Amino acid sequence: MSNASSGRYRVVHVGTGLTGKEALRGVIEDPALELIGVKVTSPDKVGVDAGTLCGQSEVGVRAIDDVDAVIAMAPDCVSYCATAVRREDEAVADIAAYLEAGINVVTISTIPMVYPPAAPKKWRDTLEAAAAKGNSTFYATGSEPGFISLNIPTALLAGAGTVDSYRMDEYAVDLDKSYPIWDVLHESMGFGKPDGHVPARIASGKVNHDWETVVRYLADILGLKLDDVTLDWETLLAPADLPTAIGVIPAGTICAHRWQLAGVIDARPVVAVQYFATVSSTPWPDRWPKPAREGQGGMVFRVEGSPSMSLELHFDQSAADRVNPGISVTAMAAVNAIPSVVDASPGVIGKPLAGPSIVSRLSRTTRR
Question: Is the dihedral of CA 82, 84, 89, 90 positive or negative?
Answer without folding.
Answer: negative
